[in-house]
Design a protein that fits this description.
Length: 263
Amino acid sequence: MIKKFLTTLILIIGILLLYIPILIIMLLSFNNSQRPYEFNGLTFKWYTQIFSDNSLFSAIINSWSIAICATIIATILGIFIALAINRMKQKYKPFVMFLNNMPILNADIVTGVSLMIIFTLLGFTFGRFTMLLAHIFFCIPFVVLSILPRLKQLDNNAYDAARDLGCTHMQAIRKVIIPGIKIGILTGALIAFTMSIDDFIISYYTTGEGFSNFSTWIYSRLNRRTFNPAAYAYNSIITIGSLLILIYINIGIRPGGKKIEKN
């Protein structure tokens, strides 16, 4: 009885710790006051200010453009890197996997500072391009780790058989390998997108004057004491949208990918 009570209590505390901050942000998005510690009634004005505040809207667009571009490029590169690792001799794989996993194991601040130093030595102008390169860099390992298990499940002779039947190298990859690892590709792409659009530390060290994504915009506004609560509204929209997608996936679609038919 005591064990069951403690388990339930820990579960409730865990859920509260996860979801109370989200609920607070959603509540603040409807607060008529610009100060979070004051509540002056309900309003929807912060939702309209997402589009009227040019700096905020620009930061949101930058976040999405960087995340989408980084995801596409990292996924394409991750596919070929995973293919190369999978066909590599066994004695070389541990070292290459160590190199691939280092950006994941490193603290974000170490990665961010390292990339900042490299970009400075190369003479790059900090801004959109350097942030995009940084996001591609830390997204690739997640894509590779998502694809490799799927590659190991494929028949090792499938690629060679496709080549013997007349396929070129790229045709064999496109018609035989890609269909067999598409779930791993999709998983890696989703993880890469999530990591990119949510990143702050690496973005902070690789951005430049005049360019910011949503996370660096929030940081700069908090420092200047000019924070716009429309950011709460944007976060609420993202949360509700993600929740609706999860509900649709878990309720509206079966694990096999077919929609549930009602009798």
